[in-house]
Amino acid sequence: MTSSKILSGVLLCVAASTVSAAEVTALSGLDYSLGSYGNSVKTSITAVPLIAKYTNGPLVLKASTAIIQMTSPGGVIAGGDGNLAIGSTNTNKRTVSGFGDLIVGSSYTVHEGDGWLVDVTGKIKLPTGEKDKGLSTGKTDYTALVDVYKSLQKVTVNFGGGYKWVGDPAGVNFRNVYLWNGGVSTKLSDAVRVGMSLDYAQSVVTGRKPRQELMAYMLRQLEGGWKLQLYGSAGLNSNSPDFGAGAVIGYNY
Question: CA 151, 154, 158 angle in degrees (round to 5)?
Answer without folding.
Answer: 35
